[in-house]
Amino acid sequence: MIKKETERKGEKMKKIKASEAMINVLLDWGVKRVYGLPGDSIDTTIDALHNYSDEIEFVQVRHEEVASLAATSEAKLTGHIGVCLSIGGPGAIHLLNGLYDAKMDHVPLLALVGQVKSTLVNTDFFQEINSASLLEDVAVYNKEIQSARKQQWRENDEIIYDRAKQRTTTQKI
Questions:
Q1: Do 28 and 157 contact (CB within 8 A), yes or no?
Q2: Contact call for residues 14 and 4 (beta carbons, < 8 A)
Q3: The whole model's pTM is what?
Q4: What is the C-alpha separation between 76 and 30, in angstroms, rounded?
Q5: What span, in angstroms and rounded, lies between the C-alpha atoms of 71 and 109?
């Protein structure tokens, strides 16, 4: 599932960042747009979206709630998975309205939520929240990804795509 531009041309795959691996999974799923607001805990994802801007559009919004509602609306209109992203902490909290809208209407939605560096988790770091607990009720799949390990992405890719086909809300931290 993980592809890099060089692999697509038949060359040997190079080591890539987790954010690039994630973008490749989104491209495999046919995702055309990601709605969100840039911020510190998702900088690598924003950078990857910029690098793949010819293949996947990043729609910058002015508030995280708009991102989740826009992604939900796109999913409702197209029947395809909608994707929104946010920083961790307060940004994740602001996604909730759109996530619950997707859940109640059984719409496939993926929320990509940033998090503080893994070495700072559970240290009461600035704007740190327990995203997994916060989103437990709204997400049928709730997983933290910290690396681009091929096996980890393959397993998560299959689970999330399966949930999306069931028209449910999923979330990745």
A1: yes
A2: yes
A3: 0.76
A4: 16
A5: 7
Please, are residues 84 and 34 in contact by the beta-carbon 8 Å criterion?
Answer: yes
Asked if residues 20 and 5 have their Cβ atoms less than 8 Å apart, the reply is no
Q: 41: helix, coil or strand?
A: helix
Give the pLDDT confidence of 64-99 residue by residue, as tens digits. Answer: 999 999 999 999 999 999 999 998 778 888 999 999
Distance CA 70, CA 92 (A): 15
**Tokens representing 45?**
């994802």
Instruction: State the CB neighbour count (10 A cutoff) for residue 50.
Output: 10
Alpha helices, H only, the chain: 5-8, 18-28, 43-51, 64-78, 90-94, 96-104, 131-134, 150-165
Which residue has 């998090």 as its token pair?
115
DSSP state of 119: G
